Give the backbone structure.
Amino acid sequence: MKYELTKDLETGNAMIDREHRELFNAINKLLDACSKGQGRDLMKHAIQFLLDYVDKHFSHEEKLQQDSKYPNMAAHKAFHEKYKNDLKTIVSQIPVENPSISDLGKLNGHISVLITHIKIEDKKLSAFLNNN
Ligand SMILES: [Fe+2]
């Protein structure tokens, strides 16, 4: 299964949408590395890339919120913080040697949390940015 930024996930902010697309690419690469048993080094690389990219993307969104004085900034940031921490915990539990599809169950669950966040909170943010 591949994640993709379907129309219903587009927020209308070009930068945010581009980064969400990259984020899905990073997730797909990790899922690929797992399912093809691409080995320890590639797995580690894919995991680190995903963690770094999520960090970078969330801080970009937070900067946009700060610059525009987004009213819901505190709650949005709190979500990001918790999301990053949970993601770190989840990926640290994926065995890098011989991961199976079931090892990825929690990660997939966590991705669906992100998708819901994109659909609701990131869309609200983009609407605010477009109007302010
Ligand atoms: Fe966000």
Remarks:
- The mean pLDDT is 94.
- The helical segments are 14-35, 40-68, 73-92, 105-131.
- Residues 61, 76, 117, 121-122 surround fe (ii) ion (CB under 6 Å).
